[in-house]
Write a structure and sequence with these properties.
This protein is α+β, with helices and mostly antiparallel strands. The protein has a domain at 8-15 and 45-145 and 178-217: Cyclophilin, CATH 2.40.100. The protein is 19% helix and 27% strand. It contains four helices and eleven strands; from the N terminus they run βββαββββββααβαβ. It has helices at residues 68-80, 150-158, 163-172, 192-200, and strands at residues 8-10, 47-53, 56-62, 87-93, 96-100, 111-112, 125-128, 135-136, 140-143, 183-190, 208-217. The strands form two sheets. A nine-stranded mixed β-barrel has the order 1-5-4-11-2-3-10-7-9. α2 (150-158) packs antiparallel against α3.
Length: 220
């Protein structure tokens, strides 16, 4: 079973990681050790990112316990204005659609990508682009919405996914084929409609420009 479809907003003008297939080592995970961080409650004062675009704001929460380097790189590049002024546009990679943009000031940034089994490529998940050598440079993409049915959730578990991970996809939707492949480090908490409109081509006639990314504190 494949969950092909729109993956979302790719902030890098390059092809994404290879084709989708089930991770080969999912049976080695002890389910009792998995904590789905995207289901955890946000805490007052934790850092968030507010991406202001010409079509509205997209707000992200971070997961520093799982992907501290990705978070730091994203914050550093945001404060440098590396994404400012760039346009999100739709492109195609096999059966998956993306909106892409080339960030600035990435030539001196390269680090080992962080992939956590506690973070899933659900709808609205934000992940670093990873090259063929397992390196990331601050380029990232956002998954568009993709629903997962109860039957799909059951089939995921039957095919070897830990029950708790299958339930996360069942509740939040997303792209199970990319679990343990995407270097997820953040999650959209507001503005997912903008991501979906870009991926669906609903605002294709107008450029969606990133005006600014600010790092703020979450207020409950």
């Amino acid at each position: 079973m494949k969950f092909a479809g729109k993956i979302g907003i790719l902030l890098y003008a390059a092809s994404v990681m290879g084709g989708c297939s089930y991770p080969s080592d999912i049976e080695h995970f002890d389910e009792s050790n998995i904590t789905p961080m995207q289901l955890t409650q946000m805490q007052e004062g934790e850092e968030i990112a507010v991406i202001t675009t010409t079509h509205g704001k997209i707000t992200l929460r971070f997961f520093p316990s799982e992907a501290p380097d990705s978070m730091d790189i994203f914050i550093d590049m945001s404060e440098k204005g590396s994404y400012n002024g760039q346009a999100l546009f739709v492109t195609q990679d096999d059966d998956d659609e993306f909106a892409a943009v080339q960030p600035k000031n990435t030539d001196e940034t390269s680090y080992e990508a962080e992939v956590s089994y506690n973070l899933c490529p659900v709808s609205g998940a934000v992940a670093m682009y990873v090259d063929a050598y397992g390196k990331a440079d601050g380029s990232f993409f956002i998954h568009s919405s993709n629903s997962i049915t109860a039957e799909d959730t059951k089939e995921l578990h039957e095919d070897g996914f830990p029950k708790i991970v299958a339930q996360v996809f069942g509740g939040m939707g997303g792209y199970p084929d990319r679990w343990l492949k995407d270097a997820v480090f953040a999650q959209v908490i507001e503005g997912q409609d903008i991501i979906d409109k870009i991926a669906d081509g609903d605002i294709a006639d107008e450029k969606v420009i990133i005006e600014n990314i600010s790092i703020e504190k979450y207020e409950a």
